[in-house]
Amino acid sequence: MFNKILVANRGEIACRVIRTAKKMGIATVAVYSDADRDAVHVEMADEAVHIGPPPAAQSYLVAERIVEACKATGAEAVHPGYGFLSERASFCAALEAEGIVFIGPKPKAIEAMGDKIESKRFANAAKVSTVPGFLGVIESTKHAEKIAAEVGYPVMIKASAGGGGKGMRIAWDAAELGEGLERARSEALSSFGDDRVFIEKFIIDPRHIEIQVLADAHGTAIHLGERECSIQRRNQKVVEEAPSSFLDEKTRKAMGEQAVALAKAVDYQSAGTVEFIVDKDRNFYFLEMNTRLQVEHPVTELVTGIDLVEQMIRIAAGEKLGIRQKEVKLEGWAVESRIYAEDPYRNFLPSIGRLTRYRPPAEGRFDSVVVRNDTGVTEGSEISMFYDPLIAKLCTWAPTRPAAIEAMADALDEFVIDGIAHNIPFLSALMQHPRWRDGRLSTAFIAEEFPEGFKPVRPDDGQKAVLAAVATAIELVRRDRLDRLAGRLAPHSGLPKRDWVVKLEGDYLPVSIVEGDASIPMRIGFSVNGGAALELSSDWQQGDPVWRGTIGGQKISAQIRPVLNGIRIDWRGIAITALPMLPNTAELDRRMPLKQPPDTSKLLLCPMPGLVISVMVAVGQEVKAGETLAIVEAMKMENVLRAERDLIVAKINAKPGDSLAVDAVIMEFA
Ligand code: ADP
Ligand code: ADP
Ligand code: MG
Questions:
Q1: Given the CA of residue 275, which atom of ligand 1 is nearest to it?
Q2: In a mutational test of the pocket of ligand 2, which residue from 168, 229, 231 has the highest number of ligand atoms less than 8 Å from its CB?
Q3: pLDDT category, 254, cuts 50, 70, 90?
Q4: With 0-12 CB in 10 A as exposed, 13-18 as middle and 19+ as buried, what is 478?
Q5: Within 152-273, where are the H helices?
Q6: Mean pLDDT across the stretch 371-384?
Q7: Are 207 and 218 contacting, i.e. CB atoms less than 8 angstroms apart?
Q8: Strand-pair category, 207-215 with 221-233
């Protein structure tokens, strides 16, 4: 076994690898760029080596720097994590040349599987079923038209070097092929430095189901069952689970066998993932093989009890695989939510800044539920523009799928993040979604269920009663504390006021306290809007960002933030301001005039901080709904801004090359 390994990555995955190395008694070396001097992974490792300035191309992606860091510290092996150098055959070769072990497959397997065109050819040869399409490079629009007509629309144009959902476009007909080809190529070139694209059949509404494989250097290969990753936004995974609610034993076995056959065909050695899409009739088609540890590997670990990083390290050290296929048992259900620094209310645009507050839910086993949070940040950390905006991967495990989902909903309710925008409200709303709960999934789920993007969740009447009760309980604690302040004249009689009105945005909800008082722990009976009396109990104290308690027997964790004119409450994807008042104050409040929000319907606002790539219209031009107005690049993604309705361009304020702030006015309409 190795004495010391270097982790050539950052963020949550570097921390994840270090954790297992520590467990195995292996010393660890971290590497870091200028932006990561104070990062958690640097803190966790036994040693750390500085490798350059913040841009990855000058630090985490420079193979020579990593090799030098190994030599300087005497690290015998390198774990690459995912992304960065994890799938670069030349990097493995460079390490091998220095006698350093790459904790991953051999360069030949990476090469064979790294390129989508090559890997499909390989899969075909290994009798793995692949998506119908053309196994070659598309040379021109003419060529694309010919191929697409042969394959049959709709088709998908994909970058051969692609990854992370980039460089991929759908064309439903010949008219869409030209722009799709251009966009896919240009995105591929800027993301991967390689503009080769190919065309395959676009499978409508498939599910994404992938098989985890493990193979050693002695010819043994097994699979650890599947993960379903159908909840995707723009072809990027958002929520994953293991097992899949869609697979029967027969399909699971067939997919597992093909995945193992492919691993054997490329002489695979390490952990790897064979991705498939599965249609309604459970026909499955190979997409690609990821020759690395996958982002969503924790769900497999939770249902199999196998530590994949440990297995990778043991295999790299030449050990024989200690697990036989028939020993692999999938137990219970695991769900993972990717918590990203992105604003769900602004089309999920990246959000950067400092985590002024970061309080994840407690990890561990609680009764029959397990909570695990893989993260690389801590309170005060900065989410920078240089790297992936992943803040954490929150996982829950329970004996059944509904229980795992319920545990996830609770854990998300408890997860407090301030300082940047994040997608927890969206994930919370998703956990309540009936179609997700039923497991009726496809990769089009988010596009179909949230066609207008994500809007704040509106509480139903039952939820309003919960919110009103929480707000009142908080107000009771606050007033009680004020009353007890030393030196205050005329302390109250000890009993709280009985009648309250809680303003919930436009609604005024009468809340009556029918029994109990404000002492902590609190136990009161209350009724909202004259409804049935419910019991509320809580030991919440002022200053605690999460209000925990039970209301009418239901466990509630709601996040509390004092704001101007009230309390902001975040719960189950609902974000609402509540203002508890005495009835006479509420009467006056009703008479206050409402402020009207500004009208932005005649403006095209820049939805994110980004670079203008092109402006496609001119002043005076009449534009039809759906036509492209401008293209803005952010985080290497080209975002096409389209007209939401028919309109006439009145003024243009931006030109290609301009770097714009969020909400900058790009153009004005008549
Ligand atoms: P997974 O299938 O594990 O979810 P993704 O395809 O989402 O993996 O990619 C995981 C990470 O690796 C992301 O941070 C992504 O940006 C990065 N990544 C994937 N493929 C490449 C590639 N070819 N080049 C650079 N980064 C990549
Ligand atoms: P990446 O390397 O970016 O992960 P993949 O080939 O794995 O690229 O595809 C990512 C996602 O794009 C898939 O999970 C699926 O949702 C969608 N996708 C890819 N190819 C097809 C296809 N032929 N038909 C339908 N959806 C597809
Ligand atoms: Mg993929």
A1: 2
A2: 168
A3: very high
A4: middle
A5: 174-192, 249-265
A6: 96
A7: no
A8: antiparallel
Where among 87, 103, 119 does a domain terminate? 103
Question: Could you read off the pLDDT of 178-236 as tens digits, one per residue?
Answer: 999 999 999 999 988 999 999 999 999 999 999 999 999 999 999 999 999 999 998 89
Asked whether residue 115 is domain-assigned, the answer is no
Mutate to test the pocket of ligand 1, among 10, 61, 82, 274 (most ligand atoms within 8 A of CB): 82
Distance 160 CA to ligand 3 centre (A): 12
CATH number assigned to the domain comprising residue 651: 2.40.50.100
State yes or no: pLDDT of 494 exceeds 60: no
**135-152: average pLDDT:** 94
User: Is there a domain that residue 122 lies in?
Assistant: no
Range of lowest pLDDT (206-215, 353-362, 541-550, 631-640) = 631-640
Mean pLDDT over each residue of the chain, to the nearest integer? 94
Looking up residue 356, the CATH number of its domain turns out to be 3.30.470.20
Token pair belonging to 510: 């009468």
Q: Is 288 a catalytic residue?
A: yes
User: Which of ligand 2's atoms lies nearest the C-alpha of 133?
Assistant: 23
> Residue 619's domain spans which residues?
603-669
Q: Are residues 193 and 210 in the same domain?
A: no
Task: Tally the domains of the chain.
Answer: 6
Angle at 642 between CA 641 and CA 644, to 5 degrees: 130
User: In 341-389, where do the E strands start and end?
Assistant: 342-343, 349-350, 353-354, 357-359, 364-366, 369-375, 382-383
